[in-house]
Amino acid sequence: MLPFKELSIALTSLISWILFNDTPSDPEGYVRDTSVIRAEYDFIIIGAGAAGAVIANRLSEVADWNVLLLEAGDDESMSGQVPLLAVNLQLSDLDWQYKTEPQDNACKGILNGRCNWPRGKMLGGSSSINYMLYVRGNKLDYDNWRDVYGCDGWGYDDVLPYFIKSEDNQNPYLAGTKYHGKGGYLTVGEAGYTSPLGAAFIQGGVEMGYKNRDCNGEFQTGVMIPQGTIRRGSRCSTSKAFLRPVRNRKNLHISMNSRVLKVVIDPDTKVATDVQFEKGGKMYFVRATKEIVLSAGSIASPQILMLSGVGPADHLTEKGISPVMADLPVGKNLHDHIGIIGMAFLIDEPYSILTPRLVSLPIVVNYTLFGGTPMSLLGGVEGLGFIKSKYADQAADYPDIQLHFASGSDMSDDGTAMRYAHGFTDAIWNEYYLPLANKDTWTIFPYHLRPKSRGYIRLNSKDPYDKPIINPNYYSDPENQDIKVTIEAVKFALALSKTEAFQKMGSRFYDKPFPGCKDKPLWTDEYWECWIKSASFTLAHTVGTCKMGPVTDNTVVVDPQLKVKGIKNLRVADTSVMPAVPSGNTNAPTIMVGEKASDLIKNDWI
């Protein structure tokens, strides 16, 4: 028999060949790199991620417009289409492999104290590397964008039609209802498999007083079997959803492996005119006759803006970038969802998703033919919960905690991928996690939905190939509210394990003291705070670095039309424009931003 690693590779290749054997008539056939790059286009879109792919599709609907979509990476991978294997993409060549600055209050148990920040470097961007969870956030998030942050036109009633427009929901009880779409480009649905652990999560949540409901619908507070961006058991990235069906449009050119260096702005007129990028060792300057749309994400978009002379004037001058085209707070207001990774609960039944159980011909055949088996699980996540801590408004449908429930733990893959993605030091791994090898477990990843801590993105240098400085300042809010709410989330997870639904399978907390926290009184708030700050992990929900709001606000980079203040013919459309992070995962809201941005652009030019 082949060793486990080689057998996994062989099985992945078989799955990929069966699911993605490209033919000329296939509506999901691969996107081909453009063979010709023209000197000018009507629109140039930088970044083919969750928003950029949507915008490229919608703008190229206008037959008279020529559109160039630039992507720094290549096409998405075949192995990345298998939902359960999502973690394997992190730290690969398909990941930008960003790391934060060492944190004072987080990632203390991670190598060098630098949190891993996975970001997709391929068509589809992070929608091609994420865990595919389809979560819209809370109604009040968007009403607050409008009422608190001055983003006119971005209230819940304004953005709901754009969520629905994209969606092709596969659940017959949801599709075509007030809150869900049918027939859109983006396939949304449940995984083709639920374990007894997933069912226990729902039952346990109900025991604790939370309703089992569609948390993307009328109310958010509750528990649910998650929906994800999957199609027939495989990943449905924005590349698959929005680019592949229109890849043969004559007016849409898609250029991969194209590293954007800067946006060229006329210093006299302050008009964005060209995009400079490098491809295959050759330098290009391509003109946009109408607009340039920056959709490179919350890290790369501010980096490109600053390299182009748009950002804090003192910082740009310090880095030797001249002239300063617009003195704007680019890179500030950075915030993110972060929580504790690696809590483990043992059980007595063989219900966990362990990799040795996956390597079998029946499971692979079932998955390739029917999209079922644990391989269709959304990165292993089987349950979502939106609950309230004691700090939340108990009268409002505005939960402040989100739970990701998974039917396994950090050791479930024998330490082949998760240990590296999560970044624990060898000392912590060997002492705490190695004893869990081959044991049935489950885990919850809890986090605070509306963090108050704020950080920043800055340039390391004026070299566009130099990764930026990333400092999220996790758990730095003066009131210590972020850590307090996260501690309450941990307590909920412990209470959930004691419900009848979990006790039936002998569920119990793996109570080995966490390394580095043994000097703290066990199971106290002080102990949990130590563990949270040691085992911190990002959900990659970073937002805010090109903040949207009224032009009179000096903390704002783009107006509610997504136009960069003081610069003509330049917009930003991605997570960076969000003034405050939505109460949930950010992939679906970013696609919504892409849909709305497309209409904003069309309204100006048609």
UniProtKB/TrEMBL annotation:
Give the Pfam families listed for this entry. GMC_oxred_C (PF05199), GMC_oxred_N (PF00732)
InterPro entries in alphabetical order: FAD/NAD-bd_sf, GMC_OxRdtase, GMC_OxRdtase_N, GMC_OxRtase_C
Q: State the superkingdom.
A: Eukaryota
Report TM segments: none
Please report the stretch or stretches of sequence annotated as the Glucose-methanol-choline oxidoreductase N-terminal domain.
120-143, 297-311
Under the GO molecular function aspect, what terms does this record hold?
A: flavin adenine dinucleotide binding; oxidoreductase activity; oxidoreductase activity, acting on CH-OH group of donors
Q: Where does FAD bind?
A: 260
Keywords noted in UniProt: FAD, Flavoprotein, Signal
Reported cofactor(s): FAD
Q: Hey, which family's this protein in? A: Belongs to the GMC oxidoreductase family.
Its name, as the record gives it, is Glucose-methanol-choline oxidoreductase N-terminal domain-containing protein
